[in-house]
Design goal:
It is built from 8 helices and 11 strands. By secondary structure, the protein is α+β, with helices and mostly antiparallel strands. The protein has 2 domains: 8-193, no CATH class; 200-326, Immunoglobulin-like. It has a 5-stranded mixed sheet with strand order 5-11-10-7-8, with no helix packed on it. It is elongated, with a radius of gyration of 33 Å.
């Protein structure tokens, strides 16, 4: 055969596996953007796109040829090319996908992007497409006859028979070990470098359960006589990154049918200085000076100086309970 004539397999630029993998990556990006949400067979495609496609593209980029000199025979130490079959590549693809997907998730976590399923799927699809393009570039650097291609059913049967012969191909073991070490190292680094949780302040109203003696978010005063006292336990925990002098303002509010206050009265105001990481709890009582049904006792917490017109819309934290104030006899 002359040099100007090649067989169909030799003239093939890249195998369809890379084209299919890139298309799966693009499809996952579109799913992440909210398209193709009702596509038939989406679940099956999703499993393939997550558990196989990323790893297959990585293996294709690492091993663009049908064989590789990177894995010489352990028994002879010779430089002969070691064949990595399609079945072995499939096993490697699953293993590498299990390594890649968690790392992609961590990359999304540390990026400015919001953590949500769409972002995660888009990131996996983007990584798959990029690895697929790299694999295409790597295969195109080889002579057509050296490039890996997926064989037909007869070829797969021959691969199964070859795998049953004595001797172990070290390629799978080496790549899987490297992949899992890489993934484990990435996860370990993420745990080591992870920043503490977001700074926050916990603010709550509780009462003591008479049966158990525990403080619970229930059993608030529901009825009180004018001039009497309504008592709850106020709790504050400073989990910020600095000491704070909190201010608590207590309001008695009459509300409309849509729960919007139309009258309110300030019942009390006090300050609670707290160091970082410390908590404070104390019983607090109010004496309602007006009567009415379903009055709202609102506790407002400010981490800075409170504004002139305190309310739930400008407070740092807020909590409330409802009480009926009956007229005194």
């Amino acid at each position: 055969m002359s040099r100007g004539v090649r067989t169909g397999q030799e003239s093939r630029s890249v195998s369809f596996d890379l084209v299919l993998g890139i298309l799966l990556g693009v499809w996952m990006i579109t799913v992440g953007l909210g398209y193709w949400s009702d596509m038939f067979g989406r679940a099956v495609l999703g499993i393939i796109a997550i558990l196989i496609a990323p790893g297959w593209m990585l293996v294709a980029a690492l091993l663009p040829s049908a064989g590789s000199r990177a894995f010489s025979s352990w028994s002879t130490g010779g430089p002969e090319r070691v064949q990595v079959s399609s079945i072995e590549r499939g096993v490697l693809a699953v293993g590498m996908s299990l390594c890649l997907v968690p790392l992609i998730g961590m990359a999304v976590h540390f990026s400015p992007a919001t953590i949500r399923p769409g972002t995660f799927l888009g990131a996996i699809g983007g990584a798959t497409a990029v690895l697929g393009l790299l694999a295409v570039f790597r295969r195109l650097q080889l002579q057509p006859r050296e490039r890996y291609t997926i064989g037909g059913p007869g070829s797969l049967i021959g691969e199964i028979e070859r795998l049953q012969t004595p001797g172990t191909n070290p390629a799978i073991a080496i790549l899987l070990v490297v992949g899992f070490l890489f993934a484990g190292g990435g996860i370990g680094y993420a745990v080591w470098a992870a920043e503490p949780g977001e700074p926050h302040t916990a603010f709550h109203l509780t009462t003591e359960d008479p049966d158990t003696g525990e403080f619970v978010a229930a059993g608030y005063p529901s009825e009180v006589t004018e001039g009497g006292e309504a008592t709850v336990t106020v709790g504050i925990t400073n989990a910020e990154d600095r000491p704070i002098e909190y201010t608590v303002i207590v309001l008695l509010q009459s509300v409309s049918a849509d729960r919007e206050p139309f009258t309110e009265e300030e019942l009390d105001r006090f300050e609670v200085p707290l160091e970082q990481g410390n908590s404070w709890t104390a019983q607090h009582s109010v004496e309602p000076s007006v009567t009415g049904d379903e009055l709202r006792v609102t506790y407002l917490l400010y981490d800075d100086a409170p504004v002139d017109e305190p309310g739930t819309e400008n407070a740092y934290r807020s909590a409330h309970y409802w009480v009926d104030v009956e007229p005194a006899n």
